[in-house]
Structure formats: structure tokens, C-alpha cells
Amino acid sequence: MKLENELKKIMSEILGVDTKMLQMEVPFKDIEDWDSLKAMELIVRIEDQFKCNFSGDQISKMTSPSSIEKMLREQKNG
Amino acid sequence: MAETNGSILIPGGCGGLGYALLNHYRNTKHHCIVLDQNEESLKNLRTEFNEFEFIRCDLTDEKKLQTTFDEIFGKFKIIAVVNVVGWIHSQPLVKLNGADFISHSLSEWQKVLELNLTAPFLTTKLAAVQFLKRKTKAVIINVSSISAQGNPGQIAYSAAKAGLESFTSVAAKELGPLGIRCACIAPGFFDTPSTQAALSETQLNKIKSATPLRRLGAPEDFAMAVQWILENGFFNGKTLPLDGGYRL
Question: Which pTM was predicted?
């Protein structure tokens, strides 16, 4: 739950919306105002905050907040 | 506090402002790498500043720049790019020639835009990709001019520098969230060989008289402005005027 909240906090800052408006399963492409710049910003922010590195392959699979959460958990456990 | 440890890439660094940076950063923790087309100047600078790197490169050739950037960024930890590339050119939009009017040459217009706008555009975008790939927090400084405000007799140069300030502002907005700052410095008249060569003593005296500080900018003034932007991690997207108050 803590990871989900942290992800939502980053996303809310990038999108300029309240965290309550964000749902983990909603694909990024369905989020209004989502674009490639915001996608890059999200990756940079997450890598900075969680001290991790995503490969190009992983980035291409980041289709929703929940997919990022899953990858972060895998990195943490792996 | 911002970018402090690493190398500085200086495209077009063979002129007076590039020289100012090399002088400023010699014997400091910053390593400098100069990219320029002018082989003769590169050779002279290489002799004078043998601790730095000097690489010949056409700054308008995207493919060659790409290869050169791959090599440089692979070898050095670049934390800043200072684009001093440019070419001062004076030519009015229309001038009288006897009983006829002659308009600004298209080829000269294109050359001015290529060297003052396209070249820094290429180095900015290629550097941004390298910084993002390497996850480097960095800064890109583009050197504009007080002519960006519109200087009669320099229509192409003024347009190019205004464009440079505008694209720097856009780059700052796009890259800022990714950890890359972009800013411009707009120098006025500086005491460099190119200024001395371009202007007569009378013209220089008129400029000094119109400058509240009654002098030309010293090369070190420019280097200190660059260093200030490097150190001030909250300066972004703007143009820092550096003209002694000439344009007040």
C-alpha cells in the first residue's frame, strides 16, 4: 500500500491532480493530458526516488501505474 | 546547488568567449572539451591549454555530431554544454545601391541561421539525449546576444538569436522535469578579438559611452556568468543579460 501511495503521489504531482483521482489499473493512454513528456518525467522521478534503473524493455511494458508497481516490487525482491 | 563535478563541453569554443571559459576553468576541477570547425584555432588552443581536449567537428553536420557526441559522452562525464557557437553577421533587410534597392541575400540569411540557430539546436538535442541516457543532471547554456531584442542592420543575426532564446525556453520546459536545465546568456559588447576586429575605435568609444559602466565586458565576466548558472540550480529557461546596462 505504501508503494502504491508513493507512486500516486509522484503521478499526482506530474499530472497536477489529486491522488484520489488516480486509479492504479487505468492505462496511461486513457489518462487525460498524458503524453510522452509526462511518461519520461514519471520514469525519471521513479528512478530517482526508488534508486532503480529501468531497461528499455521494461519501460515499453509500463502501460499503467499498476504495471510500474509490479516492476518495482520485482526489482526490490529480485 | 547544482552541477559541480564533471566536464564542460564547449561547441564553437575557439572564439573569444570560448577562450574566456578555458582560461577560467584551467586549474579547476572542471575539464573542458572544445568542439569547433576551425583547425588553425584548435591547434593554437591545444598548445596553450594542453590539459583540455580539442576536437574538430562541423557543428551543422548532424551525423558527424552524433558520432562525436557518442565518443565524448562515453569518455567523459559531461555535466554542462555551453554553446558559444555562432557567427556575427551584419546586413540590412534592404539597402540602396545607386538608384536601385538590394535586399538581404537569402544564402547569407540561411548561413546565419544555420550557425546561430541550427548548430546550437543540434548540440542541445544531442546532448539532451546523452544526458537522459546516462541519467545525468545537467545544464545547457546557449549564448544569445543583446541583438535578440532586434538590432537594426542585423536582421538575420537578431532573428537567429531571438529564435535561440525561444527554443531554449521550450527546452527548459520540456527537459526541466527530467533534470536538465537550459538557459541563455545574452552578452553585450565584450572585449574580445572579434569585437575589436569588427568595430572601429570610434564605434567602440560610442558603445562604452552608452554603457552605464563605461566599459566593454571582460572575458572573465562571461565566464563568471556561466559558472553562476552552473551553480544556481534554480535558474532555468531564462536569458541572463550581460551587457553592463547597455540595454536599459
Answer: 0.90
* Residue A41 with chain B: CB contacts under 8 Å: 177-178
Could you identify the residue written with the cell 565566464? B223
Q: Does the annotation count B246 as an active-site position?
A: no
Spatial distance between the Cα atoms of B217 and B54, rounded to a whole number of angstroms: 26
Position B1 pLDDT exceeds 60: no
Cβ B108 vs Cβ B45: under 8 Å: no
B178 contacts on A by Cβ (under 8 Å): 40-41, 44
ipTM above 0.85, yes or no: no
Work out the minimum CA distance from B175 to partner chain A, whole angstroms: 9
Rounded to a whole number, what is the distance in Å from the CA of A45 to chain B's nearest CA? 8
Domains of chain B: 6-242 (3.40.50.720)
What's the pLDDT band for B2 if we cut at 50, 70, 90? low
